[in-house]
């Protein structure tokens, strides 16, 4: 875990100036084991507008070159750079703060009122959990019950 965190920190440090120059930000990053592979996954975003494939390609080439120079990862790994998508997962405090008032889908370990997935407007979030408004009814969900929270995509 500490090793993965350090690798993510190195990648973020490498990217900070480059992303700023290109009007991009790091939405999230992770270094994980998936099957037999190690994956360094970086999600980039924009304050305004959408991330395109050309943005991802540019960041991927830059980060790949810099990671090759510094060589902070001993084993083979796959580098993925992408947008967090419209249905982005909310993980960090700043994600939740940015999307207060937006429609979210909350996946649960244990059903509430017979449902393991709730959709409602995000009212608040703190260390204990979060509150959402589902059809005018405020529901408080304990942090331990939540598997993940995503922005809901409405059509």
Please summarize what this structure is.
The protein is α+β, with helices and mostly antiparallel strands and 155 residues long. The chain has helices at 2-21, 53-70, 93-98; strands at 25-34, 37-45, 78-82, 103-112, 115-126, 129-134, 137-142, 146-151.
Task: Explain what you see.
This protein has 155 residues and is α+β, with helices and mostly antiparallel strands. Helices cover 28% and strands 41% of the residues. The chain has helices at 2-21, 53-70, 93-98; strands at residues 25-34, 37-45, 78-82, 103-112, 115-126, 129-134, 137-142, 146-151. It has a five-stranded antiparallel sheet. A three-stranded mixed sheet has the order 1-2-3. The model has no long low-confidence stretch (mean pLDDT 93).
Largest sheet: 5 strands, antiparallel
Write down the overall geometry. elongated
Helix content estimate: 25-40%
Report the order of strands and helices: HEEHEHEEEEE
Radius of gyration: 18 Å
Could you tell me the strand content as a percent range?
35-45%
* Strand adjacency order, main sheet: 7-6-5-4-8
Helix count, per DSSP?
Answer: 3
Q: Class by helix and strand content? A: alpha+beta
Query: Could you give the distance between the termini?
Result: 38 Å
Which stretches are low in confidence, meaning pLDDT under 50 for 5 or more residues running? none
Overall pLDDT score: 93
Count of distinct strands: 8
């Amino acid at each position: 875990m500490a090793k993965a965190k350090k690798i993510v920190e190195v990648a973020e440090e490498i990217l900070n100036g480059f992303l700023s120059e290109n009007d991009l930000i790091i939405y999230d990053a992770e270094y994980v084991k998936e099957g037999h592979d190690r994956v360094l996954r970086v999600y980039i975003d924009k304050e305004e507008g959408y991330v395109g494939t050309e943005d991802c390609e540019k960041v991927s080439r830059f980060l790949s070159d810099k990671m090759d120079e510094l060589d902070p990862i001993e084993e083979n790994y796959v580098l993925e750079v992408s947008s967090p998508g419209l249905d982005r997962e909310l993980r960090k405090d700043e994600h939740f703060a940015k999307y207060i008032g937006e429609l979210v889908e909350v996946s649960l370990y244990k059903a509430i009122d017979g449902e393991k997935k709730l959709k409602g407007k995000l009212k608040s979030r703190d260390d204990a959990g979060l509150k959402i408004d589902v059809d005018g009814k405020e529901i408080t969900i304990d942090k331990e019950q939540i598997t993940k929270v995503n922005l809901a995509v409405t059509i």
